[in-house]
């Protein structure tokens, strides 16, 4: 295990109420010490983070890693390499795989392969219904026991309200939040907020994209509902007008909306209605994206995310930025992370205000299609540390 000293960075740890220039010492995979002007010990590598922000490792609570079943789109190796390059030390992966993550066997397969090939921590989301067919609820206790940190039929809405209510009641006392893919968005957000209140299940709305849906979440919260929600880089950046100019690379579910929706979402992030930022990283092959009749919905997202969030949310206080990307996803999923307090696992993201231009040819992800291609972004990930190991370092970061 490496011993590492990160020097001179602005350490932003909202949980510890810390925002100051500090050095961070990492030993045996954990944060050992945070202080000023720490001396480096023998055999310790030093990372000079002057001018950069040192944050608890970012967590993307909504990615599609495509395995098992679709290695032509992405593999655990390429998807998690994209994650660490994008600044994510942990990801939660969605169950629309083949087979779906609806059994202890498929979860075990995923966890073993993530252990072997993963570059970051991988937390599986189990399905809500068997085969994601929307008919029979999964065995939630068994899936949680096998490592599922949440449940979702993401990619599809559980259309039958009776099935979803039955599932939520069965899952109520099982650890693991329900995550809704809501289409048609406003109607299903309204339904699922009622369902959360009625069943008492903890609920999270994925990729919120409309102003109305945001209002519904605000209302439910005001009435005491235990519900959280997320927004994606693309819904915070682009509109349907952009989508018609960009073409197939901008096709995604839920679709890109209108300027009033986009600005409402940005405001919803700023006022705290939106709890988490999540990419919905959804890579497809070039052939699938270029299919003129029916381009596959979704696109790669992990490697542009941090820059895109900073671009969409200029002036957002850094502590809030870190809450959205680390503290809150950890809390919503009930997983470790979200702080650099001594004794915590040494998951660290180092990033800086640095302008760069998105070039998909450089992506580690197999997905190369993105509406962000060619876009200039104001913020760059410089390093990602997972359990004390330096898993990504940008060439400009001196070690
Ligand atoms: O555009 C999307 N693509 N939205 C989803 O919810 C699923 C995703 C996928 O898996 O391709």
Describe the structure.
The chain is of the alpha/beta class. The protein has a domain at 57-333: Metal-dependent hydrolases (TIM Barrel). 30% of the residues lie in helices and 24% in strands. The chain contains 12 helices and 16 strands. α4 runs parallel beside α5 (185-199) and α5 runs parallel beside α6. The two termini are 17 Å apart. The mean pLDDT is 97. (4S)-2,6-dioxohexahydropyrimidine-4-carboxylic acid (DOR) is lined by residues 64, 96, 154-155, 181, 252-253, 280, 282, 297-298.
CATH domain class name of the domain at 57-333:
Alpha Beta
Provide the gyration radius in Å: 20 Å
What's the β-strand tally? Answer: 16
| CATH topology group of the domain at 57-333 | TIM Barrel
Q: Identify every distinct bound molecule in the structure, by name, code or SMILES.
A: (4S)-2,6-dioxohexahydropyrimidine-4-carboxylic acid
Instruction: Estimate the helix proportion, in percent.
Output: 25-40%
Sheet having the most strands: 8 strands, mixed
Question: Per DSSP, what share of the residues sits in E-state strands of 2 or more residues?
Answer: 15-25%
Structural class: alpha/beta
The run of helices and strands is EEEEEEHEHEHEHEHEHEHHHEHHHEEE
Distance between the termini: 17 Å
Query: Low-confidence spans: pLDDT under 50, at least 5 residues?
Result: none
CATH-defined architecture of the domain at 57-333? Alpha-Beta Barrel
- Write the CATH homologous superfamily of the domain at 57-333: Metal-dependent hydrolases
What number is the mean pLDDT? 97
Overall shape: it is globular
């Amino acid at each position: 295990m490496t011993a590492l000293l990160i020097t001179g960075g602005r350490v932003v740890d909202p949980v510890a109420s810390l925002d100051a220039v500090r050095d961070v010492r990492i030993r045996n995979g954990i944060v050992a010490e945070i202080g000023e002007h720490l001396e480096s010990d023998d055999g310790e590598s030093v990372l000079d983070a002057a001018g950069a922000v040192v944050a608890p490792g970012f967590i993307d609570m909504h990615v599609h890693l495509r395995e098992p079943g679709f290695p032509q789109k992405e593999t655990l190796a390429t998807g998690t390499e994209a994650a660490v390059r994008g600044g994510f030390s942990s990801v939660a992966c969605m169950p629309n795989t083949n087979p779906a993550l609806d059994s202890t066997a498929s979860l075990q397969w995923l966890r073993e392969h993530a252990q072997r090939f993963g570059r970051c921590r991988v937390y599986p989301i189990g399905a809500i219904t068997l085969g994601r067919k929307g008919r029979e609820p999964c065995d939630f206790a068994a899936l949680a026991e096998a490592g599922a940190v949440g449940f979702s039929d993401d990619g599809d809405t559980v259309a039958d309200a009776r099935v979803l209510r039955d599932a939520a009641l069965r899952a109520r006392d099982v650890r693991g939040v329900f995550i809704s893919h809501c289409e048609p968005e406003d109607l299903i957000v309204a339904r699922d907020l009622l369902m959360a209140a009625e069943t008492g299940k903890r609920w999270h709305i994925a990729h919120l994209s409309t102003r109305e849906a945001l209002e519904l979440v605000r209302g439910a919260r005001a009435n005491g509902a235990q519900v959280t929600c997320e927004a994606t880089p693309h819904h915070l950046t682009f509109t349907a007008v952009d989508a018609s100019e960009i073409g197939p690379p901008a096709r995604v579910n839920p679709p890109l909306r209108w300027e009033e929706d986009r600005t409402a979402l940005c405001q919803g992030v700023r006022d705290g209605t939106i709890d988490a930022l999540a990419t919905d990283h959804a890579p497809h092959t070039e052939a699938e994206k270029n299919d003129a009749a029916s381009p596959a919905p979704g696109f790669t997202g992990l490697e542009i995310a941090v820059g895109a969030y900073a671009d969409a949310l200029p002036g957002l206080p850094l502590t809030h930025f870190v809450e959205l990307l680390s503290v809150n996803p950890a809390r919503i999923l009930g997983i470790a992370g979200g702080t650099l307090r001594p004794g915590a696992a040494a998951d660290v993201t180092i990033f800086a205000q640095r302008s760069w231009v998105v070039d998909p040819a450089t992506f580690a992800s197999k997905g190369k299609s993105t509406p962000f291609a060619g876009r200039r972004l104001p913020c760059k990930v410089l390093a990602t540390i997972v359990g004390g190991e330096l898993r990504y370092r940008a060439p400009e970061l001196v070690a």
